[in-house]
Amino acid sequence: MKPNFEIAMYLAQATGASIVTDSAFRWREILRAARPRAGAPPARLRQLAEKFADATFLFPDNPDRIIQLAREGILSGYHKLFGEMFRYLAAVEDHGPRPNFEAGLASRFVSTHTAAQNALRKRGDVGNDGRISCVFAPTGIQDNTINRLLLMSSSEHHLPMVPMAFYIQRMSA
Fold first, then answer.
1. Pairing mode, if any, of strands 57-60 and 127-135?
2. Closest by alpha carbon to 57, among 158, 3, 4, 134?
3. Is it true that the peptide bond before 63 is cis, omega within 30 degrees of 0?
4. pTM across the whole model
5. 54-106, pLDDT tens digit by residue?
6. Which residues contact 26 (CB under 8 A, 6 or more apart)?
7. 48 within 8 A of 40, measured Cβ to Cβ
């Protein structure tokens, strides 16, 4: 439940990050803020969102093991893919949609995810299975209060919105 919604939004916009939560309450707040405004363009990355919803993720339990996996580059494909997703969503309003690029991201997610999860399971990593829901709002995730706070803090280099957010949910045993 921490940080609260306002702090999560403020930090994400100020630092150029996306939001990741495992709180159902916080996720509902994010979904409310992600509702498209009247006349908004259609949501982006629908195919990718469907692939995420269908996928099962193994989340290792041991923090030291997670650091080791990062050092070995086992999960590095996710990092590159998420970076491309973020840059695309942050600029799609200015540059226009690219349906072929979006389809490519979805297919690359499937291959990246399959390879990474197979590597984790082959190594016998202990962890929890879970799912990830995502929101790629057409006009981003926005909250007027947060935008006012950013303006009042004299922030010159912040995002006008949060392009994407993720909800991690543990699967029932």
1. antiparallel
2. 134
3. no
4. 0.85
5. 999 999 888 898 888 889 988 899 999 999 998 888 888 788 889 999 999 99
6. 1, 5, 8
7. no
